[in-house]
């Protein structure tokens, strides 16, 4: 039996951003990918809150009943992709959290410096700050396996953050892209705030494109949105459009309005706002 893949999309939750605009008060939906074989499974990324993660755990038990969840692979060092790890491990005590070595280092830095910011956005004990898990680093090859099938954690130079990677599953022609690839959510460009870093992100998209995947799972998307290689080009075009508007308008509010007009269906306008402010200030 080969592997199969299922995608759970954790729904948007309220974020205390300080904005009075309702479109800037909700966090993006988060993709969590389950890859399973006859006896074992791998989960890629977990959401933010305890409740989101409890719902994910229940879904895993229904989707892969009786399977051994062997690994949680974290694609990158943003908290909205690993804060749920302790909840999942409570339900699957033998699970091992893994990531590429650079992502492990990034998670260590993030946990040392960023908890107050995330607590501000998600107060009241919504996530388990004191129980966070530092993943084990994969070997340099990035290879690990379930049920005789190899999976590869592949590092990239930059995406929406520096410590980033994707998971490649050759037998499925699958790439679980984390935040290298986006669906219909505004892309976070506050860290990719310079032309050089945006070029690095474009090169990361080229890395994925070169594998010619049939299935591409983005880090954030609408639950109904299909997972496919078309999202690579959509992400690329968004970056190019954003860069064009930043260089042309050179005003954060005007860039924000231009991107909202071009992408009216996308989620999380708060991240659009901070991306515009950061990138314009870097000019």
From TrEMBL:
InterPro entries per record: Metallo-B-lactamas, NDM-1-like, RibonucZ/Hydroxyglut_hydro
Domain of life, source organism: Eukaryota
A Pfam family recorded for this sequence: Lactamase_B
Protein name as annotated: Metallo-beta-lactamase superfamily protein
Listed transmembrane segments: none
PANTHER family associated with the record: METALLO-BETA-LACTAMASE DOMAIN-CONTAINING, METALLO-BETA-LACTAMASE SUPERFAMILY PROTEIN
The organism of origin for this protein: Aspergillus uvarum CBS 121591
SMART domains listed in its UniProt record: Lactamase_B
Domain Metallo-beta-lactamase intervals: 29-220
């Amino acid at each position: 039996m080969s592997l199969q893949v299922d995608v759970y999309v954790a729904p948007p939750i309220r974020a205390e951003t300080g904005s009075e605009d309702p479109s800037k008060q909700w966090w993006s939906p988060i993709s969590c990918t389950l890859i399973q074989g006859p006896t074992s499974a791998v989960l890629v990324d977990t959401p933010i809150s305890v409740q989101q993660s409890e719902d994910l755990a229940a879904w895993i038990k229904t989707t892969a009943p009786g399977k051994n969840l062997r690994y949680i692979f974290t694609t990158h060092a943003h908290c909205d992709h690993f804060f749920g790890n302790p909840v999942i491990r409570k339900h699957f005590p033998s699970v091992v959290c893994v990531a590429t070595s650079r992502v492990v280092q990034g998670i260590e830095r993030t946990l040392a410096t960023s908890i107050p910011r995330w607590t501000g956005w998600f107060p009241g004990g919504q996530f388990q700050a004191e129980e966070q898990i530092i993943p084990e680093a994969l070997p340099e090859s990035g290879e690990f396996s379930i049920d005789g099938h190899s999976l590869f954690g592949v590092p990239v130079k930059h995406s929406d953050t520096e410590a980033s990677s994707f998971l490649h599953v050759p037998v499925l022609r699958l790439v679980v892209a984390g935040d290298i690839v986006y669906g219909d959510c505004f892309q976070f460009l506050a860290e990719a705030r310079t032309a050089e870093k945006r070029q690095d992100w474009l090169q990361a998209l080229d890395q994925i494109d070169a594998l010619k995947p049939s299935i591409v799972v983005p880090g954030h998307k609408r639950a109904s949105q299909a997972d496919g290689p078309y999202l690579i080009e959509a992400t690329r075009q968004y970056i190019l459009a954003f860069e064009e508007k930043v260089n042309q308008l050179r005003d954060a509010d005007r860039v924000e309005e231009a991107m909202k007009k071009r992408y009216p269906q996308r989620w999380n306008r708060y991240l659009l706002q901070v991306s515009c402010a950061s990138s314009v200030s870097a000019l």
